[in-house]
Write a structure and sequence with these properties.
Blueprint: E1 4-9, E2 14-15, E3 18-19, H1 24-33, E4 36-43, H2 51-63, E5 69-75, H3 81-94, E6 98-102, H4 113-126, E7 129-133, H5 137-149, H6 156-161, H7 164-180, E8 185-190, H8 193-204, E9 209-214, H9 215-219, H10 230-234, H11 248-258, E10 263-265, H12 273-276, H13 296-306, H14 312-326
Parallel strand pairs: 1-4, 4-5, 5-6, 6-7, 7-8, 8-9, 9-10
Antiparallel strand pairs: 2-3
Family: Belongs to the metallo-dependent hydrolases superfamily. Hydantoinase/dihydropyrimidinase family.
Catalytic activity: 5,6-dihydrouracil + H2O = 3-(carbamoylamino)propanoate + H(+)
Subunit structure: Homotetramer.
Length: 370
């Protein structure tokens, strides 16, 4: 079958005072071990930093290390006329065709609605695909303040501060804003039933929107935030968070099969136990991110195909072909044909393996699927 395309990774991302422990070597090595032959990473400039400079920095980090093909989305983390100009330069000269805006991470990456609208209009003008991380950052900041003042400092505070409706509201708002300016939209890392429902409603109203869910939300759930072992609970901290509703993984898998959600990424952004411990006394300081790049294909096969929720053709679509079509790399990727790239995976449907941090190919010392 065609090699997997992971639409959403963060290798060696500088984040929350540290760097993701899986770099472009260990991360792409692990991707290949799991049947993924292309990753799509993000060049994320700091506020006020040149987008073009950030792009070149990520290229420098990746080019000498990658074991598989990769592409870059570029983050729009602040707004000015210079940003608008650089978006055109990236599109015209460097082949970047997708830009990501954050509705969360207030005071670092978050754009307000006015700047978000300008970014969406610019994407529309350039023929680039707009992506959003959909969570209401203002509410999250207020919830964090409230929880900490109540003495809630553990990893459960992360989940409590970002309830489902906060993701659903931002998902709907992003769809409305994009629809008002006629900009095609891609919602990253949908983790909740509520957000998926909001996306589906907009889809059926005619909004041009695609949805990506991530393998963490398909393979495990938010009950781990309440594990008495702090290290175990912190190992699952990611945004949007895993959901406590036990129906979530099954329902997201069904929506992938039905077409409400089209792609699967991992948001692979790994931090070791010692890095997660930066937030030992304050959940807002726990670096956000989990593994997934190595296990994505297996988890979706097991929970999707083996369970009877999707057939092998749909499996290929949601792990590879849809991504290739949405991001304009089809038919070079996402199919097996004369003239296409020879990204071919031979998949044994009867083989078994045990997922473990002791045996995986990633540098991180914890695996959320173990």
């Amino acid at each position: 079958m065609p090699g997997g395309i992971d639409t959403h990774t963060h290798m060696q991302l500088p984040f929350m005072g540290t760097f993701a422990v899986d770099d472009f070597y260990t991360g792409t090595r692990a991707a290949l071990a799991g049947g993924t032959t292309m990753i799509m990473d993000f060049a994320l400039p700091q506020r006020g930093e040149s987008l073009v400079e950030a792009y070149h920095r990520w290229r420098t980090w990746a080019d000498s290390k990658v074991c598989c093909d990769y592409s870059l989305h570029v983050g729009v983390t602040w707004w000015s006329d210079k940003v608008a100009e650089e978006m055109e330069e990236l599109t015209e000269e460097h082949g970047i065709n997708s830009f990501k805006m954050f509705m969360a991470y207030k005071d670092t990456w978050q754009l307000g609605d006015e700047d978000l609208l300008k970014s969406l209009k610019r994407c529309k003008e350039l023929g680039a695909l707009a992506q959003v991380h959909a969570e209401n950052g203002d509410i999250i900041k207020e919830n964090c303040r409230k929880l900490l003042s109540m003495g809630i400092t553990g990893p459960e505070g992360h989940e409590l501060s970002r309830p489902e409706e906060v993701e659903a509201e931002a998902t709907n708002r992003a769809c409305v804003l994009a629809n008002q300016v006629g900009c095609p939209l891609y919602i990253c890392n949908v983790t909740s039933i509520s957000a998926a429902s909001a996306l589906g409603e907009n889809l059926r109203r005619g909004t041009l929107v695609w949805g990506e869910t991530i393998v963490a939300a398909l393979g495990t759930d938010g009950s781990h935030y309440y594990n008495p072992c702090w290290q175990h609970a912190a190992g699952h901290v990611m945004s949007p968070p895993l959901r406590n509703d036990p129906r979530t993984p099954n329902l997201l898998m069904e929506l992938l099969n039905a077409g409400d959600l089209q792609t699967t990424g991992t948001d692979n952004c790994t931090f070791s136990a010692s890095q997660k411990a930066l937030g030992k006394d304050d959940f807002t300081k726990i670096p956000n991110g989990v593994n997934g790049v190595e296990d994505r294909m297996s988890i979706i096969w097991e929970n999707g195909v083996v369970s009877g929720k999707m057939d092998p053709c749909r499996f290929v679509a949601v792990t590879s072909t849809n991504a290739a079509k949405i991001f304009n790399i089809y038919p070079k990727k996402g199919r097996i044909a004369v003239g296409s790239d020879a990204d071919i995976v031979v998949w044994n449907p009867h083989a078994t393996r045990v997922i473990s941090a002791k045996t995986h190919h990633q540098a991180v010392d914890f695996n959320i699927f173990e």
